[in-house]
Amino acid sequence: MSTTSAAPTRLQSSGVTGIDPRGPQFTAAITAVVLLASLLAGPGPVALVLVAVQTVLFAIGSTRGVQHTPIAWAFRTWVRPRLAAPDHLEDPAPPRFAQTVGLGFSVAAFLGLVTGLDALTYAALGLALVAALLNAVFRFCLGCELFLLYKRATA
User: Number of folded domains in the chain?
Assistant: First the structure.
């Protein structure tokens, strides 16, 4: 094993602190559990509380960054110390954008619950659940891919 450090990446030279790519995957797994519980609870106070909590988590990830959420803290504190060091760090911007997309879906689900529009609630929760499961199970971040497509289109 070499003791020399690799040349700085674009991420390092830009001053952005990279994130462990397993963190967003862990967050997606927790998110999937919350969203599935919301769907299974059906319209009512339990789903309203679960969706409200998930909306707050998405809002924190969207505004402060994915590395500043309570779930990211749990990952850093309890999960990451038990894992080998990641082979690379990732730019936090794509997962942050994905949190913003998730925020939109959770706000729509919350509004559906509050107004009694069950179809809106189920559609928003279902779509968010699919995206969370794609990330949690297959490491495919749909919101991150949308971010990269947007960046390419506007470059």
Answer: 1
